Amino acid sequence: MTVAKVISTGISNLGYGGTKSKNPFVDMVGVIATTKSFSFSTVAAAATESGWTDGIKAKTVFPFPQLWDVEDQGVVEVYAESANAKRKKTRKRVRRYKFMFDNAMDVHRAMQSFDNTDLRWFIFDGNNNIKFYKDGDYVKGFSCSMVSVEAMTDASQSGDAPALSSIVVDFDNSNEWDTYGDYITPSWAAKDLEPLTNVYLEQVGVATATDATIRVYSYTGYNAAGAIDKIGIAGLVIADFTATTEAGVDQTAALSAGTPGTMTDNGDGTYTFDAAGLVKGTVNLVAASSLSGGYFDSHFGTADGEATLTITT
Q1: What's this model's pTM, rounded to 2 decimal places?
Q2: Which of 1 and 171 is assigned the larger pLDDT?
Q3: Which residues pair with 250 in a beta bridge?
Q4: Which strand (E) or helix (H) includes residue 101?
Q5: Smallest Cα–Cα separation from 288: which of 52, 34, 56?
Q6: Is 279 helix (H, G, I), strand (E, B) or coil?
Q7: How far is Cα 112 from Cα 269, in angstroms, rounded to an integer?
Q8: pLDDT tens per residue, range 230-286
Q9: What residues does each domain of the chain span?
Q10: How far apart, in whole angstroms, are the C-alpha atoms of residue 93 and residue 171?
Q11: Which residues make Cβ contacts (< 8 Å) with residue 158, sequence separation at least 6?
Q12: In which region does residue 226 sit, left (phi positive, over 0), alpha (psi from -120 to 50) or beta (all else)?
């Protein structure tokens, strides 16, 4: 018997396990950022849409708008060559992408907060394949070494390019995809995941101890008169609102104490409460994770989302 190295346990079998011999990946159409600690405990959990939507409402998952374009800025493998023409790979490929978006101005401004953040990134393509890093049983996004949010470009004079928002992501470890990567093709569409939208509240008219009307709205700019162009948010329920006194004491129960459980959704973003015993204070929405429906957040910044109740009795 010839003495030989036993190497069979160190080399993988190359037969494909399914019926297709080619990978299913097509053009990249979207990215989803997550906090560094966010993960799914199993692939089955990652295939469940509610796990993603719960993360969105908890502000640990951030779906970006649909991509306008992607520029591959990666660095290919580097090889050293000896004097006798022998080569050795001295550096693996570095993946870097410039993601471009045709954003509304408020989204472009919000994107600035992602500059220099330490996040993980999921990528999905036009076939709804979500790519991920499989760390043991855990499903994670790909780690990054740099996130750079770039200035908005100007629309071209020729009209062949719009003004675009861009974010450049340098991925940290090529092994997360090439050695430990995998993908899922869920039954739901990754492109339909909705990010949170900032909303604001204001008091409409005069509030009394027994009656108050609150408007909930979003906005992206100003109208021709220079006023905020308010977009009403309809469809909320009583449980989506919370109220406190000036001293910070909870008075949520007073909002619908006149006729218990009564609130009128006026269909235009305003809500009228049949109250009892309201005193001067504020009204707000509950945390995004507790809302009955929709992806709205009125807890952005300091008091941006609050309506101040000026009670007259």
Answers
A1: 0.90
A2: 171
A3: 244
A4: strand 96-101
A5: 56
A6: coil
A7: 29
A8: 999 999 999 999 999 999 999 999 998 888 889 999 999 999 999 999 999 999 999
A9: 26-192, 197-309
A10: 10
A11: none
A12: left
